[in-house]
Each structure stands twice: as C-alpha cells, then as structure tokens.
Amino acid sequence: MPESHKVLLFTGEFQIEGQITIPEVGYRRRMSDHFNKQDRFIALTQVKLTKIASGDVRETEFLLVNKDAIVLVAPAE
User: Fold this and answer.
1) Which residues of 9-39 are buried (b: 16+ CB within 10 A; e: fewer)?
2) Which of 27, 46, 59, 64 is close enough to 41 for a disulfide, judged by CB 3.0 to 4.6 Å?
3) How far apart are the C-alpha atoms of 62 and 38, rounded to whole Å?
4) pLDDT tens-place string over residues 28-61
5) Residue of 70, 76, 20, 67 lying closest to 45 (CA atoms)
C-alpha cells in the first residue's frame, strides 16, 4: 500500500508544502526515485502554496507541479 509523505518544494516564486504518495516497498520507494522518474509533473495533495515575495497563502486539495520549475526539495517533517 502506498504511503503519503509530507514534502517541501521551492520554485522561483513559491514555497509548496504537500503530501506525495510513494510506494511503501519495491521499485521507486525513495523520494528521490519519485523525482527522478521521466514524468514531467509531480502530483501533490493537501497543498499549502505560499508566494515567497508577498507571503500570500493558498490551500488546495491537489496540485501538479512542473519538475522543471523546482529548485529545492526536502522532507517537511
């Protein structure tokens, strides 16, 4: 069964905190494997999106993030 992990992403404009689903065992069970696969977008759930310049915050249940825009990834726990 897949597990959800809290992750913190940064783009040039946004700090994005959300849940990423990663398989519990087997192939692609590490967070880095998930970001290194060929897919162009990362799917997040339970997202808090903060605009860095203004501090404006928006929350949404689902967000797709283009991996080309990501400059930093860290576990949020």
Assistant:
1) bbbeebbbbbbbebeeeeeeeeeeebeeeee
2) 64
3) 20
4) 566 677 677 788 999 999 999 999 999 999 999 9
5) 20
Per-residue model confidence (pLDDT) at position 23: 64
Q: Name residue, tokens 């501090």.
A: 55
Which residue did the predictor score with more confidence, 5 or 1? 5
CA dihedral (32, 34, 37, 40) positive or negative: negative
Q: What are the structural domain ranges in the chain?
A: 3-75
What's the CA gap between 15 and 30, in Å, rounded? 22
Residue 27 has pLDDT above 70, yes or no: no
CATH architecture of the domain covering 3-75: Roll (2.30)
